[in-house]
User: Fold this.
Amino acid sequence: MEYRRLGRTDLQLSVIGFGAAPLGGEYGTIDMAEAERAVHKAIDEGITFFDTAPYYGRTASEERLGKMLNGRRHQVVLATKIGRYDKASFDFSAARVRSSVDESLQRLKTDHIDLITTHDIEFGDREQVINETLPTLREIQKQGKVRYVGISGLPLRILADVAVRGAVDNVLSYCHYNLLLRDLDTYLTPVVKQHGIGLISASPLHMGVLTAQGAPPWHPAPESVKAAGQKVVELLEQNGIYPAIAALRFALNHPYVSSTLVGMLTTLEVETNLKALDFRLSDSLLKEIDQLVAPVKDLTWPSGRPENSDA
Ligand code: NAD
Assistant:
């Protein structure tokens, strides 16, 4: 496993990070014993960065991960979030931030969170995030309950703006750097890099689109993107390449991203995704993929308040 420092923090993240959204049941039913084996297999193989949130499974992901990490908490870098609690339930107020961190500490059975992320900030009031949410997290940081503070969301411009004005340690972006989209580097990467802010990129499989199984029913991408994703999957399979391996390898090649978070539920997924470390995606195949994707390149979907959109 390769490890990269996150921005100016002292956190060393495994380049493949373990996304625990599926552990909350976001992608369908779970074989819990197998999921626990997957968590342990990941740690054994050096995947030591774990990301969860109260939102995933409406606290179930945190609860389960907390149990599964029993006795191994010290071996991992643990990230969770505040601010989003359900599909349409957000609260970025100081009081809720404080209670949320305490509840997460209990569910995760730990006395500190390594990275706390303000979840999907485009659904909030941007000035409240800067003037209330982030300063509250800095107070909590002084108490030792969290080590570093960050933000996440889908639109890129608000992430760049709040990252700088809110002086965060890290930005978590998702579905903006994978075989289907590359626009992470248009708005966000140059800004965070210039300020020494960390960058984590999530969803290298475009939340399931780049798998043989395809997207889950709730997936918000336009149908044309899902169809293009399936064409990419077919092309890779025709070339004898397992799609997740190529997709993850592509994401891992980003020069500034410290860790790419991929959601995993089984030991087979962990073992398969580890193969990305030694895989090389040829330029000619990448060119073919780019041609397939060209009609829908960088096509995303609306998320959050209209004033926070990239448009
Ligand atoms: P993803 O692109 O990582 O896809 C996950 C899906 O792919 C799951 O169904 C998983 O079982 C499947 N999968 C993984 N490896 C596979 C393999 N080898 N073969 C076949 N299928 C495989 O999407 P994600 O899980 O949503 O994103 C990764 C993580 O990033 C999340 O779990 C979460 O921790 C984080 N995230 C954060 C935000 C945010 O803060 N707003 C948004 C999205 C993701």
